[in-house]
Amino acid sequence: RMEPLWMGMGHAAGLAAHLALESKERFHHMNVAKLQKHLIEQGQVIAYFDDLEKNDAAREAIQYWACHGFFKQYQCRPRDECRGSEVRPWLEIFIKNINESESAPLVFVSERLVSGYGTGRTLSIAAFLDVIALVKPEFMDRLNTDQSWLYKKRDFDEMIMRGEVCMALYR
After folding, report:
1. How far apart are CA 126 and CA 108, in angstroms?
2. CB-based contacts of 3: which residues, under 8 Å, 6+ apart?
């Protein structure tokens, strides 16, 4: 019963060794997020969810953000509508992940989420894009022109799904 886990650990160790040799870095200086992205792109399951289909368009993004604390349970609910209260901690993690000072201060973004959209209410795609414009304005061109981060093209008045938020922040 342990063989799949050992295979996963062997895969991660082998890839880590390859990346360390390629970048001429020591293991303890390795960019873990880069290793995680490579593993996910190669189909490795890093975080288990009992409601995430292997062919879900958001699978890679959900796997990546799970490593960074987006989800606290074994359900990621990718097709559920996303609430302002869910987006706020995800944006905190996203901002820490991009670690850039030119991002809008989180207090301002959180205030906008609460006052403009309410934490308990679901967010429309347009409302989510408004918040992203505050956090990372240069994302806007890409998110508006390449809508592959949406499960399907639809009106921006419609509610955004949890998997779509993950895809938008991952790409």
Report:
1. 18
2. none
Exposed e or buried b per residue across 131-160, where buried means at least 16 C-beta atoms within 10 angstroms of its C-beta: bbebbbeebeeebeeeeebbbeeeeeeebb
Angstrom distance (rounded) from CA 62 to CA 80: 13
**How would you class 8 by CB atoms within 10 Å of its CB: exposed for 0-12, middle for 13-18, buried for 19 or more?**
middle
In the structure encoding, which two tokens stand for residue 114, read together?
């609460």
**Alpha-carbon separation of residue 135 from 39, 78, 89, 146 (angstroms):** 27, 22, 13, 19
- The yes-or-no verdict on residue 105 having pLDDT over 60 is no
Comparing CA positions, the residue from 80, 85, 76, 90 lying closest to residue 168 is 90
- Within 10 angstroms of residue 13's Cβ, the number of other Cβ atoms is 11
pLDDT digits 0-9 by tens, 61-93: 999 999 999 999 999 999 999 988 888 889 888
* Average pLDDT of the residues in 105-118: 55
Comparing 136 with 106, the larger pLDDT belongs to 136
Q: What percent of the chain has pLDDT over 90?
A: 33
**CA-CA distance, 87 to 109, in Å (whole number)?**
10
CA 105 vs. chain centroid, Å, equals 19
